[in-house]
Structures
1.
Amino acid sequence: MTEPISYTYAVVRDADGLPDVLAGVQGVARAPVHLVHGRHGGDVAAVVSPVPPEDFHEDALKRHLEDLDWLEAVARAHHSVVEALSAHTTVLPLRLATVYLDDERVAMTLDACQDTFSDRLSRLAAHVEWGVKIYVEPISVTAARADTAPAPGLSPGRAYLRSRRAQRHTQEDAYRAAEQAAANVEAAAGIHAVDRARHRPQQGELSVGSGENVVNDAYLVPAEHADAFFSDVMRAAEGLDSVRVEVTGPWAPYSFASPPDAEPAEGTASP
Amino acid sequence: MTGAARLPVEAEREPLPGRQIALIDLLDRLLSGGVVLTGDITLSIAGIDLVRVSLRALIVSITAQNPSPWAEGTPQPRDGHAE
């Protein structure tokens, strides 16, 4: 249980200079990362670093995954390796915590999946991922009431009902605006994007920003369209009150790493 | 915090490095994106990706209005490009 095991970050096409890119890059637990090649040749390589087995065996992982600090450290380390690679080459990111017993096992996987990896890397070459989130801003009670000063002579009960109704209408308007924003954004994004993946709207304590997240999409965009995508999407929702659009990225193509038919759980659709 | 920009305020765009990425955006990608390989450490139980399950439990509060994504119907086998 003391021999380190192999944490695998991503698959890339091997190229001159990659070892230089990786020199100095630290992975999980600050370990240096290295390339692993298949045993039967081929031009894809995995990016790997040693991790302590006691942290990554099944029971340990189960425990750790409920520990947000641990999870965040691993996720950010994983991402920083992917980012370092992305600056130089097309990256096929692997799911968090893909772990093999040793580099030999990684090599066997590369040999077995060589063609799939190679095809996917070709498809993703010169593409970036943009995240697009749409939020409905919360309607404050006071804001809704301020819009509709109660008519004089209204009983307290009726005044209350009227203000509640106004509030509800304001909230409905906000959702309608969000629908409009979503349609506009989708149309603008569709001009540039070649694929879309839908993530679940963000909820819970980790969600950031105000309002309710109603759309959490990722778009795969050719690199030469990246800037136009950003500005067109931002422009698409201009002027819609109580709706906020956030664009994150550009990301390595995490959400498009698996071909659509291999990703049955998360709805992946063309725009 | 992210590449976030508010509307209708003018969009500020910064380069990605040096900016703290929101953990939730990262987890969306690292836990439901990325190539799923069958590693040597068993990360799935009855075909359900364990990483995904744990994390969804963590970041999404499960309620009647927001049922668990993995409880509905039969689990999809997620063998991806598994060996």
2.
Amino acid sequence: MYDYKMKLNPEQIEILEGKQGAVKAQVMETLVMFGDLFGAKRLVPVTHGKGHLVTSFGIPLLKPLFKTMDKLIDEGLYVEEGFTVDPRPTDYANVKCNFLEKLIFNTKMYGEQERYEQQLTKVGLIDSNAFTCTCYMDEVGNIPKKGDILSWAESSAVVYANSVLGARCNRNSGMLDLFGSIIGAVPEFGLLTDEGRKATWKVIVKTTKMPEAQILGSAIGIKVMEDVPYVYGLDKFIGNELNDETKSYLKDFGAATASNGAVGLYHIDGLTPEAVELGESLLVENAKEYIIDDAELERVYKSYPCIWKKPEAKANRAFIGCPHLSYTQLINWTNKLCDALKKNSKKKVNMPVVFTTSPDVAAKFKKTTEYQKLISTGATVSSICPLMYTNNPLTKLHNIITNSNKLRTYSAAKYLKNEDILKAITE
Amino acid sequence: MKEFKGRAITGGTWTGEAVVSKQGVNTLATFQKSALNNAKTVIAADQSNPDIYQKEITGKALCLPITIGSTTGGLVIQTICSMDLNPACFLFSKAIDSLAASGIVLAKIWEDSNVIAIDNLGDEFLETVQTGDTVEVLDDGTVKIK
């Protein structure tokens, strides 16, 4: 048995000793060894029992994943309150692929998708609509309360839950998310502790206009890496109320901090719950300082490489919504898109344009007149993961543009600011 | 020769070539292309990391501050270890991050991997070691740059 360092209660020791099954013992050993590495003193109960998993795709190469899932199922282990999971990798109805692209997706890339979704169902997947990276949207309903302890992964969801909802979750990896949810406990360290939630960076936004969320997040992520930033000067642009608009902004901002760096928590002065409650006491003494002005944002924006085979070529596909768009964002994009087309005396977008959102938000949006307006432009709404789409060696040859800094980071997609992408798809 | 002492997370002795990233290594962006292509070795594919972009990593000592990026990171490390595509050693100048730690623990417990991981080697380690240097790694977390 693993020679653990943290303090475990009798039941946890019993699990570790294998008295509740050999696989459960391995699951516990993983959590305990992981916690010991970070000096965790104990495991603490997960208080928001609904999990969120990052791994949603059945890539055959992930043999360890499928093998582990089979072991869990064979021993009857599952998540009692269920879980949501990241988006599905394909959606042929709304994101068109040619025969060869489909062949590669169905055989090489995601050949184990059906088997993996069956495995997910057996260990606690909530339902077939549970595939989204924005499980915390009202329409989806996996919403932790302030102070809740989570066992989630998906970097953009974790940073949102910590920062905007005030829940407590470390940046868990795939598998650890599931293991913590099965055991119902996670090691207490890092972002689960008051000390770990203190900011070591004071970021001062001094731009002349509202910064693009995804560039601001990128700049901060690149600068602070895994540290916690406390951001001043943003509330003057986005206000002091956590409404749909600001939450959507913070969703995109946070995703960029997490993917361009490794941020798991940020505080926005006067806006996010802990900043409102505790203010500057969240800043450690001698916190490092990072000032962001217009020039700094432009420097960061211009540093993004374009790795298309022909960088000057015209874009031929656009993905908007990574992380998945909120309902408010879908409405806003529809209105902006229709206005831009009208201004250019056009009725249709000039390339395949995919707006991505969760299945539950899509269902709500499809009942609106805005949905009909959006579809009439030739754009589509999908609940796909754009990143998974771009992994295909053939689809990645498309000249994809996106307003997502996360998608840019993990694919050959080119990042454009919102206004530039609007121009590109309507002119 | 310079010597540094860190914390042996998963110990072992090893001598070989270093590949150095002065910036955080984005695990998913670095490893996924080679893993997806069932390649025999990993060629780092993260366009945003010029330090290691297009360099071979398998069987080398990957020297880095921490890993960054997507929370699939741990699973990616477990997978490359199960495929024997992993760096022989992960040598972290800072305290290991939670994603890399997950990957190392998953690889050790579920794949019986012998991947070596040492953290807390210090900033000077990363300032000193250069890609192509020969490094000797000892069981107790000592790293010698030859």
